[in-house]
Request: fold
Amino acid sequence: SRVLDVAAGGALTLPNQPRFALDSWSLDAWIKPAAATGDAVLLKRTVDAAVNYEMGLKKVGAAWKLYGRFVANDPTDFTAECEADFATINADVWTHVGVSYNANNRTMRLFVNNSLVKGAAFTGLNSAISQIGVSTVAAAGNFVGQMDALRVWNVARANFNDYMTQITTVPVTAPGLVAYYGFDDGGKTAGDLTQSADWQSGW
Reply:
């Protein structure tokens, strides 16, 4: 099975499509960071100054903490950022990471190898973001190492029990699955398994 190999300065730009505009969401992936990785963004969608969703790493010594982030159009109205208490992600080791955000009760949860490592609830004036504006969706920003099975969901998952091995293939009809990058393509492009057109060309 192939994986995404990311060198220093590399990144993956995902398509700017309406399906990536989410209220509640979950993000998950398998990662194997190299020691050269510092603070890194694993996946992020922005709309102008707002952050629709973000999952990333913060380096502490030789290891990393997982974090999740959501920022409304006006950060003073509402910002949700949750960071793990401990750095449990090690270099050169495959680790499953996941972040979920429930827009209804404004809660965020972080998972490392499907263990809940942090949860938080947030308050603020206005937690909605406008989906009208200049948006970008990108993965592996400042990340050096390998990534596999990157997935985007339009639901706040309670856990990732069903997908705890890299060889487990998620059905493309799985409830809430918006995008699924298995990185088995080869080359410099990545096909989304949820989109049939990706299978029809370039594989």
User: Anything to note?
Assistant: Helices lie at 196-200.
